[in-house]
Predict the structure.
Amino acid sequence: MPAVSKSAHAKGDFFVDYEEKVFEDVKAQPGEKALVTFHTVAFEGSIGFVNLLQATRLQRKGFETSILLYGPGVTLGVQRGFPTLGDEAFPGHLNFNKQITKFMEEGGKVYACRFALQALYGHGEPSLIEGIRPINPLDVLDLVLLHRRDNAFILDTWTL
């Protein structure tokens, strides 16, 4: 029987070179915009939260950054909590709320489709995190087209 001759990993050990950066640190040119769209359900995998972090990073790189929540994506923008709104039932329970709030505090804009909010998920505008701008469902495409016209960077977040 083979014997393990290496000691167990210990707290503080490094597994990878996390300091090496291969590519230049790209910053926005004056006036550059970015749009991150979300058509994904909150808590259904990591993509929603990861791309909220990406949106925040784009904002910090100098892009005028907007988030579009539509379809199931509106579930990222509703207030949460248990037993009352704002109470974190378990660690990470409010990660979407906290990240969206941080993004808006840093100057980002967040839009949520009113149709998806009400017709698909049974929420009204008061359910949204404060600062999120509800929009007409016809504005969803126009918001994307406006960003396209402005040559913005567009990151689409989808899950099936």
